[in-house]
Amino acid sequence: MSENVLTLENLTKHFDTTTGGVFNKVKGVVKAVDGVTLDVARGETVGLVGESGCGKTTVGRTVLKLYEPTSGKIIFDGQDITKLSRREMKPLRSQMQMIFQDPFASLNPRHTVGTIVSASYDIHGIKPEGGTKKAVQELLERVGLNPEHINRFPHEFSGGQRQRIGIARALALKPKLIVADEPVSALDVSIQAQVVNLLDDLQQELGLAYLFVAHDLSVVQHISDRVVVMYLGKVMEMADTAELFFKPRHPYTKALLSAVPIPDPEIERKRERIILRGDLPSPVNPPAGCVFNTRCWKAQDICRTSVPALVEISPKHTLACHFPEPA
Amino acid sequence: MKPFLEVKNLNVSFPTEDGNVNASQDISFEVALGETLAIVGESGSGKSVSNLAIMGLHNPARTIISGQAILNLESGPVDVITAPAETVRRLRGKAMAMIFQDPMSSLHPYYSIGDQISEAWRLYNEGNKKDGLKKATEMLDLVGIPDAGRRVNEYPHQFSGGMRQRVMIAMALVNNPQLLIADEPTTALDVTVQSQILQLLRDMQKEFNMAVILITHDLGVVAEVADRVNVMYAGKIVEQAKVDEIYYRSLQPYTMGLLQSIPRVDQLDSHRLKTIPGQPPSLIGLPAGCSFRARCEFASHVPGNLCATVAPALEEKAPAHLTRCHLTSAQLLELNTSDVRGSHN
Nearest 10 degrees: CA dihedral of A106, A110, A114, A116? Predict the structure, then answer.
């Protein structure tokens, strides 16, 4: 058994943009994910952060083969799943699950909680010990819901409770990996903490690995063992959480961290921010050289012509930058 | 001198089939020129509803509003709650302006940016379309949109999220308002763009000496920009104080709970997050007593059944520091473990 539950090697996912109409010609390519290499160990949480449009969600979905990868390799639990067909994927699907951002859109409003959570048993033809109902009730209890609510509909629950239903559904088949795409960003602050703690507890109890996709760096810092920073489809920096947050080497990571407001007025008054100019460039036409060069305050000529390679600068700390910040 | 905006005992409720939704109750606060008041709370706490009432943006047929919101204008005070709709309409966009969370749905997709800003300007100023476009270009330049002369003729879809929010700010400020209400202005934006927009709002506040009300759920943003803070829960202000008092010497169990439930990017904490159990109550037929009591960890410190029977009033328990709680300030300070400076580990 390999140590990693998931390994991505140079994964790319390109989307064609088309002219539409009768001829529907391809007019461009969006390189949503452009050469991502990372791994997730058993029982580990890897945070995937970046601004909107950086490709973090696409990575999550491609890992589960909800999108067909354009190139590269996806190795799940020691098995190369890159080229597997839908039918070949099915037995593996029970081991990889997803939690979605929007607890309102991701649950069928016409199905009861019981039907929603037990759907995975039906799809995979699994008869849980002691019956489906008992299994679902145990799951509901485990995620902090009242097991008697098995016959209620999603609209009878609050946002936080619905997110718990989504989590129960993901847990039903005892997966090894859960891709959580912005699982708490739609929730209120006081509810966010409840769900974050739940995810923590479940990981401890069940040895789950999470690929935690989010834009909220404070939550990612709290929950992740390692963190990957993406920008325009590429990995900029990857390191253990403490190292990435307290000794960032990539200018983008540094700027991103300095932009996060800290709930402490005295610190905020003293803080010096790196304010990045402008917005994320279009992924249809990314800048030549380092994709970050248009907003980087350290950019020089080489950054506009040559793509920096992702290299390991110290154990478990990789970086793609021509002019990294001092250690 | 009187503060520019004085809100007194403002109540907003919406009649529904199930009963009245008391969306905001007994709201009183002031904002001075040059000052930023942050209003924080979770969804449904009433933070937007009371400010929409100040702007006169509720449908009068479906809303019951009482209380006062007085703008102390140079020409004399005007209570925008009782004033005729026409008076409020003339103040809107002139003396007071508002920006919203979603800059895409707040801009008209068919009109150019320049047309939309110049329309707002020409409502209150003499000038033809050309003057309006010139003013629009000036404003775009002021809010940091590069190449304003060209972009003034472009349409909303040609702008990114952050740039659209800049356009909204330019439009709100085109008539030099004295009060700007910003309702979650950065919630839809990425952090790097958020810090640009917050910086812009600060610069604009200095430039125009405005009173700013910032509505947000993000306690980090509050710490960054606020002078004073209203914390809202279940339709009421539960704490009102200067920003440092809120973060370092809170006298409100709900605020303490909120501050402790958020992870911080500058502290490595692998311990469990503290949570506020349960969820906010429904605003229809709120039970008697304190709305927060079911989730309050200090309710047991209050003698008798006071929390369940008597709703605490908003009282000044320390200088310029108001809170709704039956505990004394000494008790609250002793129980408070939320001083964010104390939590460094």
Answer: -30
d(CA B85, CA A141): 53
| Predicted confidence band of residue B344 (pLDDT cuts 50, 70, 90) | very low
Name chain A contacts of B190, Cβ cutoff 8 Å. Answer: 51-52, 215, 280
Residue A1, pLDDT score: 54
At the fourth CATH level, the homologous superfamily of domain A4-95+175-319 is P-loop containing nucleotide triphosphate hydrolases (3.40.50.300)
B145 CA: distance to closest CA in chain A (Å): 9
Chain A residues lying within 8 Å of B161, measured CB to CB: 52, 279
Q: Are A218 and B160 inside 8 Å of each other by CB? A: no
Proportion of chain A above pLDDT 90, given as a percent:
79
pTM to 2 decimal places: 0.91
What distances in angstroms separate CA A225 from CA A209, A234, A285, one per listed residue?
10, 20, 33
Domain map of chain A by residue range? 4-95+175-319
Kindly list the structural domains of chain B, giving each domain's residue range(s) and its CATH number in brackets, ordered by start.
Answer: 5-226 (3.40.50.300), 243-264+274-335 (no CATH)
For A250-262, the DSSP string reads: SHHHHHHHHHS--
Q: List the one residue out of B64, B59, B124 whose CA is nearest residue B97.
A: B124
Mean pLDDT, chain A, as a whole number? 92
- Quote the percentage of chain A above a pLDDT of 70: 99
ipTM beyond cut 0.90: no
Residues B255-284: tens digit of each pLDDT: 999 999 999 998 887 678 888 988 888 888
For residues A317 and A226, the answer to whether their CB atoms sit within 8 Å is no
Nearest CA of chain A to the CA of B27: how many Å?
22
Residues of B in contact with A215 (CB under 8 A): 190-191
Q: Is the dihedral of CA A104, A108, A113, A117 positive or negative?
A: negative
Minimal Cβ distance to A256: which of B191, B218, B275: B191
User: Shortest CB distance from B160 goes to which of A194, A260, A279?
Assistant: A279
Q: B interface mutation test: which of A145, A184, A189 has the most B CBs within 10 A?
A: A189
The answer to whether the CB atoms of A218 and B265 lie below 8 A apart is yes
Q: How many CB atoms lie within 10 A of CB B15?
A: 11
Q: Give the list of residues 6+ apart from residue B163 with CB closer than 8 angstroms, or none.
A: A279, B145
**Structure confidence at residue A202 as a pLDDT band (50, 70, 90):** very high
Of all residues in chain B, the percent with pLDDT exceeding 90 is: 76
- Alpha helices by DSSP H, listed for A155-206, are 159-171, 189-206
pLDDT recorded at residue B224:
94
**What number is the average pLDDT over the span A65-75?**
95
